[in-house]
Design a protein that fits this description.
Number of strands of chain A: 40
Order of helices and strands of chain B: HHHE
Number of helices of chain B: 3
Radius of gyration of chain B: 16 Å
Structural class of chain B: mainly alpha
Structural class of chain A: alpha+beta
Strand content of chain B: under 5%
Largest interface: A-B, 39 and 25 residues
Distance between the termini of chain B: 55 Å
Shape of chain B: globular
Helix content of chain A: 10-25%
Largest sheet of chain A: 5 strands, mixed
Number of helices of chain A: 9
Shape of chain A: globular
Strand content of chain A: 25-35%
Largest sheet of chain B: none
Strand order of the largest sheet of chain A: 3-2-4-6-5
Oligomer: heterodimer
Radius of gyration of chain A: 27 Å
Number of strands of chain B: 1
């Protein structure tokens, strides 16, 4: 391995990054995930943490660009140079740039994540068969609305699983229209446009207006590339037009004719000879994850290695089951040391001391074990923004509450949106244990339900607070939940007196008035709430959206049960 | 017997021209990735320094160090790669 002259490295271990722009080649969530995985490659072996910023200046600023993209090292069109990054330091140093003229995938051809349909956002399965015909790209066959779709299993006829492919008719990204779909035709500088355009931009990105008049409304977004779109050339993002005419000859598929480099291309109009509009045909593409992991190696201080199998070898090659080479590990550990112990976690307060067996003389046989909580003085420096995961998040009296290890923070729903706390749980709700798995409020009855339990206990318990009076702890069997439920992970109120309780991959509907679970439950969470993690540890309702949290991330679902945002609890909810 | 096709190469608008000789390709590559000291490159000196630079590039890439612009070296130069120079400048 090699390091840069002077062993350039970050002088801090909590490195920040910010994604400044996206490629239209892949769904944003796939890009976010590819970058996060690429950082994890390094944080798995060195004592580094990577925190994503959504504004301001981060150590590592990530962007896509083509040709001359604002630094002294222009890219060179498709293939050749894929990306570059700068060694650690201020300003441009540490930044990573990816060539937009490449076709960015996960390394094995179009990576198409679906939306809507009935496949819960699954990836397209190529090839798939539909009415006896095989498709290796999204198709509009069988539809009259021109929306491209794909099957998410090999055989649509058998499985009937499908979703819609990226299309400007479904959504846009970036811009200022919050992902709204394009409106065609739209007016821009007095001209009418029937499709996405690069007019008015110098970076080649295709955009559209999301109202019928950009000149008056100024609302726009960038168009996602369809999987059949060409790469580079002078028609980036447009689909091939088959057949097309080139030098008087008709072509029904991509061709390398006319080129000395053997690359396949097509015309995006019916005649290349007349219109000269063309682009390269989609291929396997380059794995954004692998290239990013390499570039982030530079951004952390590693130069190129001459070990062919090392990640820091300068040339790209696709590997399916990636693992970091010993040479890369030695390099990063030379700079930052070895990683010891588990992942960094916030300091843990005293955990409750628990008597696992109930005292039959003092406790109702159906009630839970006696739990005494050891409280400690509030540490004013305990910062919610430094926590990566909360025991539970819920809305109480209109304010978002975050619980963690005997403390809670609250976030007002008003304009100031500043997190307040920590407050000791024991002061406000003295009967509760330190760890709260779930909570919900019945506003009409002015009741607060709290659930707590874990593997060290024999069953989950619940408490009901009505102002200062408390009922419980009681076993969840009282509510009709099986005592095998080790944790109630989340609660969603559904109409009058109905509450959905989540645990593991299942959820139950509680009739609060009858204190019973409705018939027909449990149900599988993923069947009703597609596209959210099956192992969410917090589920709650906030501002007309349902949130499913896993680790530091949340999946936000709208009233139509569509995931419309994935983000960070820390930045979006806590406003850190 | 089929006649060999006579390919016609066209200049595609918006394409970054990469139609160059092997020597041009190699010189550009060695320069771009830091193997050639661009300030001292002319005539005979260029051939000597190019040979040295080629050997250095071949060593970095794990190729046989021939100092010649052979096929494996040219192939390596055409492969997709990271834009960070291999030799710091």
């Amino acid at each position: 391995y090699q390091t840069f002259d002077g062993d350039l490295k970050w002088d801090h271990r909590d490195v920040t990054y910010r994604i400044l722009s996206y490629t239209p080649d892949m769904e944003i969530s796939l890009i976010d995930e590819a970058f996060a995985r690429a950082f994890k490659v390094w944080s798995d072996v060195a004592p580094l943490t990577f925190t994503r910023l959504f504004d301001g200046t981060a150590d590592i600023m990530i962007s896509f660009g083509r040709n001359n993209h604002g630094d002294p090292y222009p890219f060179d069109g498709k293939d050749g140079l894929l990306a570059h990054a700068y060694p650690p330091g201020e300003g441009l140093q540490g930044d990573a740039h990816f060539d937009e003229d490449e076709y960015w995938t996960l390394g094995t051809g179009p990576a198409v994540k679906t939306r809507y349909g009935n496949a819960d956002g699954a990836m397209c399965h190529f090839p798939f068969t539909f009415e006896g015909k095989s498709y290796s790209s999204c198709t509009t066959e069988g539809r009259s609305d021109n929306l491209p779709w794909c099957a998410t299993t090999a055989d649509y006829s058998k499985d009937k699983k499908f979703g819609f492919c990226p299309s400007e008719l479904l959504y846009t990204f970036g811009g200022n229209a919050n992902g709204a779909e394009c409106v065609f035709p739209f007016v821009f500088l007095g001209e009418e446009y029937d499709s996405c355009t690069t007019e008015g931009r110098s970076d080649g990105y295709r955009w559209c207006a999301t109202t019928n008049n950009f000149d008056t409304d100024k609302k726009y977004g960038f168009c996602p590339s369809r999987d059949t779109a060409v790469i580079g050339g002078n028609s980036e993002g447009e689909p091939c037009h088959f057949p097309f005419v080139f030098l008087g000859k008709k072509y029904d598929s991509c061709t390398s004719e006319g080129r000395g480099d053997g690359k396949l291309w097509c015309s995006t109009t019916d005649s290349y000879d007349d219109d000269k509009k063309w682009g390269f045909c989609p291929d396997q593409g380059y794995s954004l994850f692998l290239v990013a992991a390499h570039e982030f190696g530079h951004a952390l201080g590693l130069d190129h290695s001459n070990i062919r199998d090392a990640l820091m070898y300068p040339m790209y090659s696709y590997v399916e089951d990636f693992s970091l080479h010993e040479d890369d590990i030695e390099g990063i550990q030379y700079l930052y040391g070895r990683k010891t112990g588990p992942d960094p976690t916030p300091p843990q307060p005293n955990t409750p001391t628990t008597t696992p067996y109930p005292d039959p003389d003092e406790t109702d046989a159906t009630d839970g074990p006696t739990t005494t909580t050891t409280t400690r003085p509030v540490d004013p420096t305990k910062d919610a923004c430094k926590l990566t995961k909360f025991d539970t998040i819920t809305v109480i009296e209109g304010e978002l509450h975050f619980f963690k290890d005997g403390y809670f923070w609250k976030m007002s729903n008003g304009g100031d949106e500043k997190v307040k706390g920590p407050f000791p749980v024991s002061e406000k709700w003295p009967a509760l244990p330190a760890v709260i798995d779930s909570a919900f409020e019945n506003i009409l009855a002015r009741k607060l339900y709290f659930f707590s339990g874990n593997k060290t206990l024999y069953w989950t318990q619940f408490w009901v607070y009505t102002e200062q009076s408390v009922l419980g702890p009681r076993s969840i069997e009282k509510l009709g939940l099986p005592n095998s439920v080790q944790k109630v992970e989340g609660a969603l109120q559904r109409g009058k007196g109905k509450v959905l309780l989540f645990s593991g991959e299942n959820y139950w509907r509680l009739d609060e008035k009858a204190q019973k679970i409705d018939k027909g439950y449990p149900k599988y969470t993923d069947l009703a709430f597609g596209g959210v993690p099956n192992d969410a540890h917090d589920v709650f309702q906030y501002k007309d959206h349902t949130y499913f949290c896993r680790d530091r991330f949340y999946w936000r679902m709208n009233s139509r049960r569509q995931v419309d945002r994935v983000g960070y609890v820390k930045y979006d909810l806590l406003k850190c | 017997w089929s006649l060999p096709l006579k390919s016609v190469f066209v200049t595609f608008p918006g394409d970054i021209i990469k139609n160059m000789t092997d020597t041009e390709l190699a010189e550009g590559y060695l320069k771009k990735f830091g193997y050639i000291d661009t300030l001292h490159r002319s005539g005979f000196q260029s051939m000597v320094s190019n040979s040295k630079a080629l050997k250095r590039m071949q060593r970095q890439m794990g190729l046989e160090e021939t100092g010649e612009l052979d096929k494996s070296t040219l192939d390596a130069m055409k492969r997709p790669r990271c834009g960070v120079p291999d030799v710091a400048n």
